[in-house]
TrEMBL record:
It comes from the Bacteria. Residues 46-212 form the DUF1989 domain. This is Urea carboxylase-associated family protein. Residues 9-20 have a biased composition (Basic and acidic residues). InterPro entries: DUF1989 (IPR018959), UAAP1 (IPR017792). Residues 1-22 are annotated as: Disordered.
């Protein structure tokens, strides 16, 4: 075999330079063939395979677009303030402060400090979930026979552990996550109805309102009733832009949102960051 020796393995590995797979990061991101922004502004371009994860630190004002390419991606998302990871996405506050359990354009993703981590500035899918969180090792082992990170059916929490470790975080730092592209609705009796995907090509765009660490696991939604582990590629693109400004429609949309933006602005100003 050509790879039976160290030299052969090296030559084989080097021969792969420049080849592309369907799911992989593009480095430099400027090489992405059709950027959604001005030339030179793209800072992250990646296609995440089903059953895989990614992570990145994004500057305040950066816009992040997630796209469900084939209709069966599910982007489970966690956010942390980049240099203060104890301030992180709080799904319960995101729901209750805004009086809305359904994510979509105009919604804010809040921390437990009453500040805005990111805002949803565009959404063509409408199939998201803030109630169920991601899958677990125990549940995936029961359903698919395994849920470890290297198996064919990895659990979202297990992948989040890997992404967290690469950012100096531990399993105890993993709160409940949000899910994009696979929806859940609450019935009159309080039970949950899995509504699934809106189909291929749906996208959601978030704007970072602080410097944030982003963790994403692309795995099936835990309420997906299909017996097979179905998870298709997720496109991730991010580009330099500007944070939401006072007086903007998103800032002024609701009293609760305005207070969250004011809390964020005051905190950033005190640190000399805005």
């Amino acid at each position: 075999m050509a790879t039976a020796t160290t030299y052969g393995a090296r030559d084989h590995a080097r021969a792969q330079e420049g080849t592309r797979a369907e799911a992989m990061p593009v480095v430099p991101s400027a090489a992405w063939p059709d950027p959604p922004c001005e030339a030179g502004h793209l800072v992250w371009a990646e296609t995440v395979a089903g059953g895989n994860y990614t992570h990145r630190v994004l500057a305040r004002g950066t816009e992040l677009r997630l796209t469900d390419l084939h209709g069966d991606a599910c982007a489970h998302l966690l956010l942390y303030v980049a240099d203060r990871p104890w301030e992180r996405l709080n799904v319960a506050d995101t729901v209750k402060v805004q009086w809305n359990a359904y994510l979509g354009e105009g919604q804010l993703l809040l921390s437990d400090q009453g500040r805005v981590l990111a805002s949803v500035v565009a959404d063509t899918s409408g199939r998201h979930d803030a109630l169920c969180g991601t899958s677990t090792l125990v549940r995936n082992t029961e359903r698919y026979g395994d849920g470890t990170p290297q198996c064919p059916s990895p659990a979202g929490r297990e992948l989040f552990k890997l992404a967290a470790a690469k950012n100096g975080l531990q399993p105890r730092d993993l709160p409940p996550s949000l899910s994009f592209f696979q929806g859940v609705e609450v019935r009159e009796d309080g039970s949950l109805d899995f509504t699934g995907s809106a189909g291929p090509g749906g996208s959601v765009t978030l704007r970072a309102e602080q410097d944030v660490t982003v963790l994403i696991a692309n795995v099936p939604h835990p309420a997906d009733p299909r017996p097979d582990y179905v998870s298709t590629p997720l496109e991730v693109l991010a580009w330099r832009a500007a944070p939401t400004e006072p007086g903007a429609p998103l800032w002024e949309a609701t009293p609760e949102g305005r207070r969250a933006f004011l809390n964020t602005a005051e905190f950033l100003a005190a640190r000399g960051l805005a």
